[in-house]
Amino acid sequence: MKNLTVVDNPFVKRDVTILRDKETNPADFRSALNRVSYSLAIEISNHLELSEFEVQTPLEKTKGYKIKKQIVLVPVLRAGLSMVSSFLEMIPDAKVGHIGLQRDEKTLEPVDYYYKTPKNLDESVTILLDPMLATGGSAVASFNYLKKRDANNCILACLIAAPEGVEKMGKEHPEVPVYTAALDRQLNSVGYILPGLGDAGDRTFGTF
Ligand code: PRP
Ligand code: URA
Fold first, then answer.
1. Atom 15 of ligand 1, nearest CA residue
2. CA distances, 46 to each of 39, 100, 129, 153, 206 (Å)
3. pTM (2 decimals)?
């Protein structure tokens, strides 16, 4: 997929290893996830347009920069919540929408239960946050919703992607750049990513 960027600097490689390790406890899992999210946010910033303005230093005027468009972060509940704080530290004036989806364990189809996004998505850059891109069903359903709300400049930030999910995004939303910290091998028979990290929501929130 031409729109796929794998962000794998040495810090990310170390932290993805911590996330994969089944012995990692939820506190260390959340810390590693926060650090990887910083790296994703920094890489994604290369995709954002700047506007220039004049800034007055204590000594003289010089050129300054700001991010041109309003950024809207949209975590997919629950696991996407774990990426919000790092992105907000890098983009403090971002707005935050929420999409509630849960995969049906039998069909693997996403079932929606909550939507709340800011107005004027057509004038914003919308960054969907979800650590896992597995079958791609949840990401595709999220962008279907966001596009109905007029989002036209969208990015997906995830932690681990399966080839199946990347392919589905490429078919359904080919213009959306996908940033991930790892591209894994495949899905297993029940839709989990291999080698993966298990259930991201459960490992983040300790619900096991
Ligand atoms: C996980 C994950 C994604 C989805 C990915 O959420 O956070 O949203 O699965 O799978 P897909 O690409 O096959 O759609 P889950 O449904 O487990 O909900 P949770 O975050 O509430 O645990
Ligand atoms: N959701 C998860 O949390 N993990 C997977 O491996 C696939 C979907």
1. 102
2. 12, 28, 17, 14, 34
3. 0.97
- Nearest residue to 129 via CA among 84, 181, 183: 84
Q: What is the per-residue pLDDT across 89-131, written as a single tens digit (0 to 9) for each?
A: 999 999 999 999 998 989 999 999 999 999 999 999 999 999 9
Closest ligand 1 atom to 133 CA: 12
Which is catalytic among the residues 107, 112, 150, 185?
107
Assign residue 55 a region (left: φ > 0; alpha: ψ between -120 and 50; beta: otherwise): beta
Question: What is the CB < 6 Å shell around ligand 1?
Answer: 76-79, 101-103, 108, 110, 130-139, 165, 191, 199-201
Tally of structural domains, the chain: 1
Active-site residue 107, yes or no?
yes
CATH of the domain at 115: 3.40.50.2020
Q: For the range 191-197, what are the long-range contacts, defined as Cβ-Cβ under 8 Å and sequence gap of 24 or more?
A: 191/103, 191/108, 191/134, 191/135, 192/134, 193/132, 193/134, 193/160, 193/161, 193/162, 194/162, 195/20, 196/20, 196/132, 196/160, 196/162, 197/19, 197/20, 197/159, 197/160
- Cβ neighbour number for residue 100 with a 10 Å cutoff: 16
Please give the residue range of the domain that contains residue 84: 4-205
